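INSTRUCTION: Work out how this chain folds

Fields: amino acid sequence; protein backbone structure tokens

Chain under study, with its fold:
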Amino acid sequence: MNRSILLMSISSALVSGCAGYKNAEQCEQKMADLYPSDLPKYKRERSSFSHEGQRVVSRGSYEVPLPKEALAPTLLKVRTRPQPVAMECTFAGEQMTSYQWLAPKKLVLPPPEQEE
């Protein structure tokens, strides 16, 4: 009896984990499809997902040059800095229900106005 409960628990955990990975792939693909071509090419870094993949955040970054003023007083060889790219996706099972940009700032939509 205890063995069958253990096996059912393990199989349930594996199935929910698989949904999370599939949803992360969908979110990464949505981010790649909607990323504007006028921005520098980004490098995909990682995705995180909540229990059963209901919420996924895909992350990446691209490099932007530092302003010349920032370079003058330093002897550092660093000439660029990373800019974040991130998208949040929500799912019902394996069906994407919504998505929104979290970064860069120019892609983030303002929150809807609240009625008083």
User: Anything to note?
Assistant: The first helix runs from residue 2 to 34.
